Amino acid sequence: MSAEFFIIFQSTHDVIKAKKALQKAYIAHEIIPTPKKVSAECGMSLKIEKTVLDQALEILRLKGVLFRIDLL
Predict the structure, then answer these.
(1) What is the pTM of this model?
(2) Structural domain for 64, as ranges
(3) What gap in Å lies between CA 43 and CA 54, rounded to an integer?
């Protein structure tokens, strides 16, 4: 089983921007509530598989999306 990562955002605007960018690149992801044990920032995160993590993070960096990641 592949490890899952949370991509955590400071704002809802960044979550929506990230979702659109990842959809456009056909990268599988899921919007989920951010678990309290991980962060109390935005409240919404993206869950993503390790196999596409590097590609997803590069896309988000190029789009100027502010984020941090945590291993689940």
Answers:
(1) 0.83
(2) 4-71
(3) 23
